[in-house]
Amino acid sequence: MNTKKIKGFWLFVILSIIVYFAVQMAANTGMINNYHVNTLVYICINIILAVSLHLVIGITGQFSIGHAGFLAVGAYISAIVTMKLSLPFPIALIIGGIVAALTGLIVGIPSLRLRGDYLAIATLGFAEIIRIIFLNIDAVGGAAGMQVTKMTTWTSAFICLFITVLVIVNFTNSRHGRACISIRENEIAADAMGINTTYYKVAAFAIGSFFAGIAGGLYAHNFYIIQPVQFGFLKSFDILIFVVLGGLGSLSGAVISAILLTIISTFLQSYPETRMIIYSAVLILVMLYRPQGLLGTKEITDLFKRKSVKGGS
Amino acid sequence: MKLACQLLPYEEIFSIAFSLAVTLYLKLFGLFEEEWGFMDWIQQLVNGISLGSIYALIALGYTMVYGIIKLINFAHGEVFMIGAFVGFYAIAGWGLGFFPALIIAMAVCAGMGMLIERVAYRRLRGSTRIAALITAIGISLFIQYLFIYFRGAQPEAYPEVISNQTYNILGAQISSQSLMILGTSIVLMIVLQFIVHKTKIGKAMRAVSHDMDAARLMGINVNTTISATFAIGSSLAGAAGVFFGVYYTKIEPLMGVIPGLKAFVAAVLGGIGIIPGAMVGGLVLGVVETVVSGLGYSLWRDAAAFVILILILLFKPSGIFGKNAREKV
Fold first, then answer.
1. Contact assignment for B135 to A284 by CB distance below 8 Å
2. A192 interface with B at CB cutoff 8 Å
3. Quick one: which of A152, A219, B242, B309 has the most CB atoms within 10 Å?
4. How many CB atoms lie within 10 A of CB B98?
């Protein structure tokens, strides 16, 4: 089992190095233009967001619909660090992530006492409050927004994505991750087994917020301008649909749906209404006919495993 | 260390921090300096109550639906929006008066609420709460953007259907619109109380919300009862939409989102599932909002509602009128 895990780990590392250099080469030789590279960077950001929310909803089972709030914190804090304090970009990303994680702690400690619907509404309320706070601070431009230099590159986005996926996969497979899954399955039973449920819920929430903050830093330095209106409920909904569509509890499902939906939405960029109609209709249909999402709690690697078992017997 | 000093523009940090501190101080000080007379308070109170009665009407629909099927009907804000537009077309297009338009809007919204329940929520009755919640969010966005797709996102100016006179009552300026909205809301709430407590369908609604399975065993048609609940709640939201249009004179396809969320806050504040709680919660929320924007913090108005929500969830999640129920394992 252990060797299998290590093998999987190296496979993941090699695969990501191949993907990274393939894109880098293609960009250098001019096979794909800047627009495509930008789309790829945006896909990376969305995957980070999807995976970080997957940790909160899919693994720990805490239904948060205010993820855009932490994205906003990461975006604004990192933009302030690079623009006003003129510190280097990687430091800004880390500071943005840490501040977002602290915000996650502040939001999580009181609100994770709630369950189900109430938790969802409380996170939504917190995200709105965060947005309104940024709207009212004149130092970051208020409603008009804040100018940010473009610093996010394919390399930085991909490194962040790599680290995020690695940390979250390892967290899920660790003892702590198992504890989180037990909370998802049955909180009362987990509590009875001696798991400190509050601790793990808050920890998962803070880790999720940290990576959302990192994604926020990348997001802010990718679009030249950040405005509070970009971090409203619709952004939270966009992230939520990645996780829900892919399957609640499936990391690869979240990644796949983030990739697919980002590509679809770049095609539909000039028809925002159509995009929202399609998104919401897909969401409703998935919930009515396949409420566990496309992959359920399975991972894409499970499919290969089952095949190999069948072939062997 | 020397290098760090050169890198960090300390002056700028200090200037930002200083300006923040000064504005905070001035604002807090301004709060005490700007003295409100007694009449100002009365006027704000009346404005707040008429805004709050709109919230209360929407909150009633939330609370009734939650009470009966334990679902936060996110699409309720969209029913409210449709009500406002139906009222608008009835007044501006067909030249109807305020009350006929109100009745048409309420009827259309009742139908729409039943349709939403039949198409989306009925299938989900046995599924998880999260699936139901996500579907509700999906329905809400679907209606919004379908409406924008077919009609366009441009706002519409509501015609002045009630003559806007201002009465001067003991120094407080009170408009006839506020009084009209307040009066009609009170009538609607009395009618609702009558339906819930004195009619057969109201009795069925209370029975189903108490215990759905037992109600079914007693021969109550649960599906009809739930449809009726949706119809009544949605018609109240439709009425609130018309009032909102009259009061704010501007309607747009995305207008339902924020009032919808705030009405939900009102429902939670009063104790979700409890009808008088929704009324009181709506009124309290309206007054708080009016006072916050009256004090010069109109940008923070929306935050006030969410702060109230979080405080109430933290300290008394069952709401003002709620009783603490032990969760069963």
1. yes
2. no
3. B242
4. 17
